[in-house]
Amino acid sequence: MKGKLSKLRTGLLAVTFAAAAVIGLNTTDASAALRYISKESQACLGCHKGMNPALVQQWATSKHADAGVGCYECHQANKGDKDAFQHFGFTISTIVSPLDCGKCHPKEEKEVTESHHAKAAQFVGSLDNVLGRIVEGEPLFNLGCAQCHGRTIPVKNGLPILGPWPNEGIGRVNPDGSKGNCAACHYRHSFSLKQVREPGTCGKCHQGPDHPQIEIWELSKHGIAYKAHLSEIEQTLDRAKWVLGEDYYQAPNCVTCHMGASVTGAKPTHDVGARLSWTLRPPISKHKPNWQAKRAEMKKVCAACHQKLWIDGFYYQYDQLVELYNNKFAKPAAAIMKFLRQNKLIDPIPFNQKIEWEYFLLWHHEGRRARMGASMMAPDWTHWHGLFEVAYNFYFKLLPEADKIVAEKGNRRVKREWAEFKKKLFSNPYHKWFHEFNKEELRKIAEFYVKRYGEAAQ
Question: One of this protein's Pfam families, by short name (predicted)?
Fold first, then answer.
């Protein structure tokens, strides 16, 4: 057996040294010397080493190259394919879709295709799309919204059309009909595990005023601990097996909680929603389908570091915050907008009236920040960047603007119904404080502020 392996190794070395000479690889590199590269890929590399030298170098250091997977193995196409074209005697496609990746990675392809990531381009037709594509304009849509969400990629003569292309969106709709884009996270052409596990990979899209997950995580205890132990964790990021509680223990990042494996029973997945129990994106949060099972999966990850009482206590607090947001602000705000629309006090054109912007900011920005801050244990994002802004927007922007619209445009019936609507709203214990506050509580608050800040605080 040893002799056969030795002969095989010698044969691979001979083939690979010849290939290395063709593409300009360093033949003294032991790992490069064991690569088998197909003749088709050798032909690709023969040209592209001069045209795109860094691209070739990225591939040459990749696990794909180690496995003998080259340019042609990923880009080959059939003549009948919608995105196929002839390229120096080869039938190839520019876009490598999840279906292409799935030939070698079927489990991952299935999980990605079934995930919310693959559906991200469905935002076209939503309020987000109206803002990015119409209010702001198509160039912004191509370079902003669609670069995270993805979009449908049309082709002409097999080639993607400029404007929509290039596109790296996670929910890209590919010419072969598949949805998703593996390269949105696994950057070409090195496909580095270390790079894809870096929190910044997720932060490329999950940042900013409406979904600041990366900022929230960075200043949570998880993020602070991760940075404190970064030099230790970095040594593990490029390993094929990356199990919490076995290969590392110091702190979690995005992949750990949403995709990673743990010794406490969590299995690795490419469906990033497989462990999420709440949907926090829409104006009013709701539980995801089969949410109890999904929460149980996330709890398996938590259990690698936390006791059951801690985990259950966190979810109790988290659920309370989401329900508070829903019932105190989100549902009443939605009812206000419904009242205005049903009575034709605002027209159907989105974003052409101030109150539509106020409402959008309330749920899409401040409301999301509060809910996401709670979900990732970041108190300042939950409060000051979150529900504080929601409350201010609700009481001092949305309601006054609705009052103004009713006063200016409403008839007697509408004004009477609006007065009844507000009376019912402020009779709710959540909002009763706005007109009625316990006098004894007011006295205690005033005394506290005077004692702490002086007479000027009154």
Answer: Multi-haem_cyto
